[in-house]
Amino acid sequence: MLANQNTHLDRTVIIGTRGSELALWQAHFVKDSLANIGVTAELKIIKTQGDRILNLSLDKLEGKGFFTKELEEELIAGTIDIAVHSHKDLPTEHPPGLIIAAVSEREDPSEYLIILKDCVDVKQKLSVKFGGTVGTSSNRRKAQLRALRPDLEMDDLRGNVPTRIGKLRSESYDAIMLAKAGVVRLGIDLSEFHVEELTPTEFVPAPAQGALAIQIRETNTDLFEILQKLHHADVAEALAVERTVLKSFGGGCHMPLGCYCRKNDGEYQVFTSKADTEHDLPDRMYISASSTVGLVDKILAKFDKERKLASKVFISRELPASSYFRRVLEKHDVEIEARSLIRTVPVMTILNAYILQDVDWVFFTSKNAVEYFFQLKPQFSHPVKFGVMGSGSEDMLRRNGHFADYVGESGDTAEVGAEFAKLANGRHVLFPGAENPMRSIHKALSPETKIVDLPVYETVLEESAEGTDADILVFTSPSNVEAYFNDNLLDNNQRVIAIGKSTGSKLEEMNITYTLPFSPDEVGLAEAVFGL
């Protein structure tokens, strides 16, 4: 935020706003922020096309800016001084004579999937029952939801935030999707529902989601100077990347496009999801750079339909037809060679009940550990929490009827261990897993934590691992790396992707260069393959 300046305004500023609860919250937020710097303001409520026409989905409304046009017209006419918008509603082209003078802090741009409790199925990804109906009018949300859950039905949902929640309450839908920012700003209690929070790196939000735009006339220079006290330049920089991507694709609110930019440890990280229509499987892209200069051009180049992709991808595990990764590759006619180079076999057939006594946490570092542990039909006499490493383990835990209380989303076991230690230090933690485990998570736990290793399976390398002529080789575990390179060398033109840092460490031991996906799941894997 820029430093305070000594500019004063000796008149009341008129703020134009829509009349919905969320729009009024946003306008009052700006009014209060102005009051804090000595500027008096009052509100003028203006009805927009998007407020008047509620029986059509957004992509069927005429033109652009159906939540902003009328506010902008009054701003140009001089009947208001400021228009407050949800930044994501603004068209990428401003009317002549208007500018965005300030951008607010950004609320968390995550999405909420809000589900009726009797429509929850823990065994399904995202927890909506199989074949459930989700209410949303956003083509972006529809496309990404279908990518993760092709079985779900989509039904249009219009209205302000409380109205949409009311429609869910009346059981018009099994679930609805809303931006977290609106729910948080209105302080809405969702305890009667089951809520799945989808982070912006796993479910890409609309460009500029979560931020407010304060729009004024370009000639109003005294007001512009005052509004710099409310401006967050770092947020504006990230939003500029997102909105430039949107503009470059010629998109508006109806385009199935999500783009999210953030600065993390000095690096700009950009996540993009783009489909041609709401019914198409979106392409996902992740890119990072030290500067925003040229960043949008790099993103557009990755989405160029003329770009030559890999002709064949090898992955060291089986891929069912329903696999997201398989569906993305098949969409682009990429040949898939999916086979494991190892076998896993159980090492225990009966689970002694005493092992589960006094256990507070059960932590799984792989989906194999989850599968073999629950084959033993464990019976807990008291509430137990579950921790998992990665979305694959989380999905397997769901299939066995349990939610994860902690999900380690980073591929770095040291980071996951440090996070998990904050929850589990001093408690009794059971680690079902392979024989001779790496114990990466264990190292972060305090000495007073009771740690019990429970070998439930062992890994057996295949006697001979056949090589592949694939352009890209994806290794899913250190054991698969070992099995493959015991018998094969890497071709100079072949590129390697590692799922998880432990797999990467095994490749480093062999002096093999590799790429690490942003997230160790099938979405991150798709991003990595198409990012090469």
Would you summarize the structure shown here?
This protein is of the alpha/beta class and 532 residues long.
Strand order of the largest sheet: 16-21-20-17-18-19
Which spans of ≥5 residues are poorly predicted at pLDDT below 50? 1-6, 52-56, 58-64
Mean pLDDT, all residues: 92
3D shape: globular
Major pleated sheet = 6 strands, mixed
What Rg, in angstroms, do the CA atoms define? 26 Å
Structural class assignment: alpha/beta
| Strand content range | 15-25%
Number of strands: 23
Report helical residue fraction. Answer: 25-40%
List the SSEs and their pairings.
Blueprint: E1 13-17, H1 21-35, E2 41-45, H2 49-52, H3 69-77, E3 82-86, E4 98-103, E5 111-116, E6 133-135, H4 139-148, E7 153-155, H5 161-169, E8 175-179, H6 180-186, E9 193-198, E10 212-217, H7 221-227, H8 233-248, E11 257-264, E12 267-274, E13 283-289, H9 295-302, E14 312-315, H10 324-331, E15 335-338, E16 342-346, E17 361-364, H11 367-375, E18 385-389, H12 390-399, E19 406-408, H13 413-424, E20 428-434, E21 450-461, E22 472-475, H14 478-485, E23 495-498, H15 501-509, H16 522-531
Helix pairs in contact: 8-9, 10-16, 11-12, 14-15
